[in-house]
Amino acid sequence: MGVVVPLDEERRRAQNAVAQLQALVAQDMEDVNEFIRERMASEVPMVPELASHLINSGGKRLRPMLTIAAARICGYTGKDHIKLAAAVEFLHTATLLHDDVVDESDLRRGKKTARMLWGNQASVLVGDFLLGRAFKLMVETRSLRSLEILSTAAAVIAEGEVMQLAAAKDTGTTEDAYMRVIQAKTAALFAAAAEIGAVISNRASNEEAALESYGRNLGIAFQLVDDALDYGGRSATSATLGKNVGDDFREGKITLPVVLAFRRGDAEERAFWQRVLQDGDQRDGDIEHATKLMARHGTIDATIARAQHYGAIARDALAIFPDSQYRQALIDLVDFCISRTY
Amino acid sequence: MGVVVPLDEERRRAQNAVAQLQALVAQDMEDVNEFIRERMASEVPMVPELASHLINSGGKRLRPMLTIAAARICGYTGKDHIKLAAAVEFLHTATLLHDDVVDESDLRRGKKTARMLWGNQASVLVGDFLLGRAFKLMVETRSLRSLEILSTAAAVIAEGEVMQLAAAKDTGTTEDAYMRVIQAKTAALFAAAAEIGAVISNRASNEEAALESYGRNLGIAFQLVDDALDYGGRSATSATLGKNVGDDFREGKITLPVVLAFRRGDAEERAFWQRVLQDGDQRDGDIEHATKLMARHGTIDATIARAQHYGAIARDALAIFPDSQYRQALIDLVDFCISRTY
User: Fold this and answer.
1) Parent domain of A159
2) Which CATH number characterizes residue A197's domain?
3) What interface predicted TM-score (ipTM) does this complex get?
């Protein structure tokens, strides 16, 4: 069983989807970027230097785009979605800075991580600085409900990371336990980013819930595809991924492709997974063997199939909105997240 | 020149001062502790385990006490000061967890640091969790002004820590530059903790400013005394301090006793400070030599004299309030902070 490779046509359409969404929100996103530049300023030079290294490293700004698009689909005409979107990006950037310290990562988006250039200490502290600035931005919008949603998400994200830390070395992790981790560490921020777009638009609670659900399920799909890509999902290479293929493996992370390979494997295979991930005893050729076992049991395919399931829920969540360019772009974004090659 | 040792009588009075303040706020602080216990709960067991290790390690709860006392001196009769005080303690605890990671500290308050027991990774993440929960508590009070003050403080504290990181190895740091660091990393939270007590009481801006000033100057005095104590200030021992004497020295931190010793020393002495702190080349007997140089130039005395200067400003800031038990207790607290032995 090979991995699911979409037809070139499908892939082009998916790529196109993100380009369309980007075009729709281009003006707003310019304002968001302006706020980001302005609000990461500090009289301590190392702060904006380190922060901008990551913020300007070519991330897709997916989460702030969700806030903007959600506000627009709700017909919002004010200006506060810009500040909230910038706050979401700061929150996300703070999480990445701390993640790279926790995971001891060397590369992100194809560049050296901030901790490799400025050290772990500065990465922790600049993350804290961005968290503080994120809340300051939210406060300026005076939207207590948005503040509640985002502060709750901030705590949930951290809880998810701790959960992952505790489960990191347990090859017997169930799929359910793994899903709880990614619901918290990834999907919570996607959900919050989309939901606050409805909140500042003062929309009915069913529209708020629809956008929350869209964001949450998109986030789950996004993370599952990420996990598949880390094992070369669709014959991706280190260069196209912007991070090392097999990072999760080397860090001993238990992700869905591993959870399934462990469960579907025989005693000998389980002993292998325990040695390389639980005991951390990795040798030459182990990653190739791991990939072979995943192919044997089709666990990359299964992971992408799971992602498609959550993607379908995300799409259906938007059905209550009347047809519009924004709705179409958000629906197409689901396809992009599932078929993305970077 | 010896260090300034207060008469036993003075020391007793100062100790007494804190006991009096503690008695005045005892009921409120019980409620604060109840909220702290409740809000650090998580379904991820490691989160409250790690958090309570530090939160229940016998800290004096100075910062939340400031919020409570400030609200009471302003005649506040509501309940929100409890939540804000708990939020202040969470913010402070998050900072300590991250500080211990950044400083690679082994001991705090006489106990092993959380990072020694649960690792750096969990300490970073549980700090983030507490930050999220702190903001959630603030949001519940619906006081946007308090949220603004505390989110600003959170960013400023992190900036101060980065500033210290950048200056850490520079023995040529000026006293002014050093003061900017401690204004940010320590005094900002003391100032915010006191100010929000006035904010939720809806007091006139001069009372808000008075409490902000009291907190800021108390915080500066507190930090300067801490720096003096780290070099055994008042013949303190590792056991009475609850941390290792000379920690700052070993970590190459440039604090005021060093700043002054470097400036007041001759070329040979400056070469010594550069070797041990700038180049990090420390040998047996260096810490004793450092202490001797500080005694020769009276830099511990001078640091405590500086602390007394800021303490006096803090006391005078409270003059606009009518006499009350709370005002007296806050004034006495200044003496306690300066003469404390732990």
Assistant:
1) 8-336
2) 1.10.600.10
3) 0.90
